[in-house]
Design goal:
By secondary structure, this protein is an alpha/beta fold. The protein has helices spanning about 50-60, 110-120, 135-145, 150-155, 185-195, 220-230, 255-285, 320-335, 365-375, and strands at about 5-15, 20-25, 45, 50, 65-70, 90-95, 100, 120-125, 170, 205-210, 235-240, 290-300, 340-345, 355, 360-365, 380-385, 390-395, 395-400, 400-405, 415-420, 425-435, 440-445, 465, 470, 475-480, 485-490. It binds alpha-L-arabinofuranose.
């Protein structure tokens, strides 16, 4: 039986903010060091200390925004230790992530250079948990003040004459947990105080993001919106899929059918969270002037056997491609409130785009989904209604098919679809209204087995292929998606 879907190409639902395709890079494991930063003197080919292979791959994703330096690391990071001559930079212990020594060689200047090379918007996350108001105020002054001031002068001494443009600034991270174990009332007051000194200098306008709830902590959202909404542009939300729960997450590769089903159901669950947090936000902010910023999301499993438990290094299978496809469709479809999302994390940590080993690099299945979906960036969302069957397995229930659609400025319609059924293909009877379907092309990603992934020996085991399994009908298209797949169709 086919899945029925109606695509109303002329029913616009607002812009899909390109920042939904954002990334996150923390000082954690081998994300920054080794994964991105190897230093100018490395034998690994690099530009300004950033490895060329990773840079090239990431550039092809059109990354719109990059969040840094954490995560939990952000509330222990003292930015002044990470500027000036590298040999004089203070070393610190990264207590959250493996207890390793952080030499601070990658700091503000290196991050801003990386953003410049990626042509991406920087999103800097400040320290509320263990930092002072003065320290946060100084950082903003250092980065953005044009003219004569103690911090601007110091920046110039350190080699950066012009201030940087900085749009996004986060005031603390997970302040209900690693960012200070605060109660929402206390954090709301601290947020109001700290953000006061996050100033707009020299024509730079900062978009302020308040640390938001963990998963379904609706009381956190309620208190923050009630007490501080007029001082924020965005409120963050963090949600991870861990099939076995937080303490025993499950293996990234060696998983079974039940794990598949639970993972899919947990991927879909983010829609419930978005709906419920949005309902609370609507109560305090019916005009939707505060955005929901999902600045950490992804599938988080146990670390690869034999690797440092504090480094969060995991493989990435076709399951992760489907989880990414489902999540991005959900974000697109909630573009009225969600204006940014940042997958965790960009390199070598949790659900990464690329994995590295010495001088080798591979692209993950998740990378390919991001590349396929980037046609939605800043495109106009159009109405897509899917009547999906529900799959009931392993005590959970979830839709077989999900999707989203948007129209680019040249009129090209892009439809992204997922088939979460790992055993059966599905045919979608897509009724297309408001556009003639003259020229249709497509791409999809799947693999023979749900555990398939890319390795340094077989880097292209899971990769996109051209979609040919569709035919025009009187009303639109019939599209057949293979089991456990993600597809993007372009209709001109
Ligand atoms: O992404 C890994 C960690 O998950 C982040 O540092 C923290 O914010 C979250 O708990």
């Amino acid at each position: 039986m086919s899945t029925k879907a109606v695509l109303n190409a002329d029913l616009s639902r607002g812009k899909i903010d390109k920042a939904i395709y954002g990334q996150f890079a923390e000082h954690l494991g081998r994300c920054i060091y080794e994964g991105l930063w190897v230093g100018e003197d490395s034998s690994i080919p690099n530009t300004n200390g950033i490895r060329n292979d990773v840079l090239g791959a990431l550039k092809d994703l059109n990354i719109p925004v990059l969040r840094w330096p954490g995560g939990c690391f952000a509330d222990e990071y003292h930015w002044k230790d990470g500027v000036g001559p590298k040999t004089e930079r203070k070393r610190m212990v990264n207590t959250h992530w493996g207890g390793v020594v952080e030499n601070n060689h990658f700091g503000t200047h290196e991050f801003m250079k990386l953003c410049e090379m990626l042509e991406t918007e920087p999103y800097v996350n400040g320290n509320v948990g263990s930092g002072t108001v003065q320290e946060m105020a100084d950082w903003v002054e250092y980065m953005t003040f044009d003219g004569e001031s103690p911090m601007a002068n110091w920046r110039k001494e350190n080699g950066q004459e012009e201030p940087w443009k900085l749009k996004y600034f986060g005031v603390g991270n997970e302040n209900w947990g690693c960012g200070g174990n605060m109660r929402p009332e206390y954090y709301a007051d601290l947020y109001r105080r700290y953000q006061t000194y996050v100033r707009n200098y020299s024509g730079n306008e900062i978009y302020k993001i308040a640390g938001g709830p963990n998963i379904d902590d609706y009381n956190w959202t309620e208190v923050l919106m009630r007490e501080a909404k007029e001082h924020m542009d965005g409120l963050s939300l963090h949600y991870y899929v861990h099939p076995g729960g937080f303490w025993n997450k499950g293996d990234a590769v060696r998983f079974d059918s039940d794990d598949w089903h639970v993972s899919m159901q947990k991927a879909y669950h983010i829609e419930t969270l978005i709906d419920k947090h949005s309902t609370i936000m609507d109560k305090y902010d019916p005009e939707k002037s505060v955005d929901l910023i999902v600045d950490e999301w992804g599938a988080w499993y146990d670390v690869e056997p034999g690797t440092n438990p504090g480094f969060l290094f995991q493989q990435n299978t076709v399951r992760d491609a489907v989880i990414a496809g489902i999540s991005l469709n959900i974000f697109n479809n909630h573009n009225d409130r969600i204006k940014m999302a940042n997958i965790a994390q960009m390199v070598n940590v949790i659900q990464s785009m690329v994995l590295t080993e010495d001088d080798k690099m591979l692209l993950t299945p998740t990378y390919h989904v991001f590349r396929m979906y980037n046609v939605h960036q800043d495109a106009e969302r159009v109405d897509l209604d899917i009547e999906s069957d529900m799959l009931e397995e392993a005590g959970v229930e979830y839709p077989k098919v999900n999707g989203s659609a948007s129209k680019q400025s040249d009129g090209t319609l892009n439809v992204s679809l997922t088939n979460a059924d790992k055993d059966s293909e599905t045919t979608i009877d897509l009724n297309i209204r408001g556009i003639e379907t003259s020229d249709v092309t497509g791409e999809f990603i799947t693999s023979g087995k749900m555990n398939d992934h890319n390795t340094f020996d077989q880097p292209d085991k899971v990769k996109p292929e051209t979609l040919t399994n569709f035919e025009k009908t009187a009303n639109g298209l019939n599209v057949t998606l293979p089991p456990m797949s993600v597809a993007v169709l372009s209709i001109k």
